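User: Hi! I have a protein structure encoded as tokens and I'd like to know what sequence might fold into it. I'm fairly new to this, so please keep things simple.
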């Protein structure tokens, strides 16, 4: 049975953004996809709600999504940045087959921002991290350190020269002879392989 993907947006752009729509379209090649907006985004507010409210909204979206699916459909939580972090908190309480994090915000903004490792160490659901090498919110050395302490099965897919939105540089494209579509195709292939192992 094909999986179903509940896809959560990041802090700054909602489900209607071109980035979210493009990735939702790619994910539909693997299964059913539903996007949603957190309340603050739906209401036109710029500042995200606090984590408990975000988790509540995500929980409600998951419950609603499941009512539309055939019984036994494996559900995968996919999130961009903040949406991936909220999804992992949700996975602590709700049974889902796997999580996919696109640009996981392992550290916040600012030099003294704490490493957000507690939810990762508590997690038991398989998780795929997709991180760009230029993503300041997801330093790869910290990911290696945190992954070593995790109990959940985890995979890290690295996007060379990718930023927090997984966008590769023109310099990388010139050096490799590949374009952004090729880099995105690599990410989709990594998601497909991960899902085939954990959520089908």
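Assistant: Happy to help. Inverse folding works backwards from shape to sequence: for each of the 200 positions I chose a residue that suits the local structure. Here it is:
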């Amino acid at each position: 049975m094909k999986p179903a993907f509940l896809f959560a947006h990041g802090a700054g752009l909602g489900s209607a953004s071109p980035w979210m729509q493009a990735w939702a379209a790619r994910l539909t090649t693997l299964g059913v996809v539903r996007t949603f907006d957190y309340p603050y985004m739906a209401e036109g507010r710029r500042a995200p709600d606090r984590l408990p409210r975000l988790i509540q909204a995500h929980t409600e979206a998951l419950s609603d999504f499941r009512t539309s699916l055939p019984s036994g459909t494996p559900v995968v939580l996919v999130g961009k940045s903040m949406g991936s972090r909220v999804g992992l908190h949700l996975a602590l309480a709700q049974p889902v087959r796997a999580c996919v994090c696109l640009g996981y915000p392992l550290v916040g903004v600012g030099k003294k921002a704490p490493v957000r490792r507690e939810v990762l160490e508590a997690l038991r659901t398989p998780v795929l991290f997709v991180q760009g090498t230029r993503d300041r919110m997801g330093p790869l050395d910290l990911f290696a350190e945190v992954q070593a302490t995790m109990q959940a099965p985890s995979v890290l897919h690295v996007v060379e020269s990718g930023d927090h939105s997984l966008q590769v540089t023109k310099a990388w494209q010139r050096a490799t002879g590949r374009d952004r579509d090729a880099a995105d195709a690599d990410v989709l292939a990594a998601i497909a392989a991960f899902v085939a192992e954990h959520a089908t």
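A useful reference point when you look it over: The beta strands are 4-8, 32-36, 75-80, 98-102, 127-132, 154-159. Feel free to ask if any position seems puzzling.
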